[in-house]
Amino acid sequence: MSSREIDGNVLTLSASGWTYGTRFVLYDYQTWSMWFCMDSSCSYTGITGSYSDRQLTAVHSEKTTWNQWKNSHPDSKYMLY
Q: What is the pTM for the complete model shown?
């Protein structure tokens, strides 16, 4: 998982409609750059546009269930819609 912030700008990322193998290529609306997850860490790298060859900062994430999360972080809140 990657941060959407680069050089102090917060990007709006969306699926570009392209895939490579099993991975989505993302698009940002601010610079029209395309982003691809090059390796197993899945930190996105710019492959076209203003941020070509730049990398978004990886952020910590974990795959878990709600019950496991709630037990580890009892003050967590959620929103129903």
A: 0.68
For residue 2, what are its two tokens? 């990657």
- Tens of pLDDT, residue by residue over 9-56, are 899 999 898 888 888 899 999 998 999 987 766 788 899 999 999 989
Cα 66 from Cα 9, distance rounded (Å)? 31
* Residue 26 near residue 35, CB atoms below 8 Å: yes
12 and 64 in contact (C-beta within 8 Å)?
no
**CB distance 28 to 19 below 8 Å:** no
Domain segments of the chain as ranges = 5-72
